[in-house]
Amino acid sequence: xxxxxxxxxxxxxxxxxxxxxxxxxxxxxxxxxxxxxxxxxxxxxxxxxxxxxxxxxxxxxxxxxxxxxxxxxxxxxxxxxxxxxxxxxxxxxxxxxxxxxxxxxxxxxxxxxxxxxxxxxxxxxxxxxxxxxxxxxxxxxxxxxxxxxxxxxxxxxxxxxxxxxxxxxxxxxxxxxxxxxxxxxxxxxxxxxxxxxxxxxxxxxxxxxxxxxxxxxxxxxxxxxx
Length: 226
Description:
The protein has four helices and 14 strands. It is an alpha+beta fold. It has two domains: 160 residues, Elongation Factor Tu (Ef-tu), domain 3; 55 residues, Roll (Membrane-bound Lytic Murein Transglycosylase D, Chain A), CATH 3.10.350. Helix 3 crosses helix 4. It is elongated. The two termini are 48 Å apart.
């Protein structure tokens, strides 16, 4: 049976790259019974007062939040699980902390990780944001024999990776457009920002006086706007 694997990664050339060696890998001995992936998109204009003359707010895309992953696994040190017969709960938890949670003094932050378990988690690279441990079985001396570990991760990205994923038509990028016959500034703002109301800001940004009479062939800059 394929077991969940968490691999410590390093950032190299703007990419997140899995590290080799047993010290950089945590293998779950008992797979999670379930996991959840959370995706969230934010829209502006949906909170607060509605503009005068409008019965409802008009949502406008703001950004997509990083994906979130939550999963829970069991660590067993009773000896009944073959893959964990020779390791204690404390050792298993220490390995998990070293791989996914511990602070890296060289990079001044915890390392990102890659999580693999079947098709559903074959593509997730993230950073651990939470590690909750509940102990439930003990030896007579208090040594833990079983623990439930809940982990939460947030999608890991570098600036270079985010830039690659950005759509070239995104309003988060600066555009230079050439005015075409019949173009108006509101029409061009609609084309770039999906918002005609930006035309006054673009007129000021480009030092336009007579923006109502755009000359074909004129180059205009459309900077990132929210």
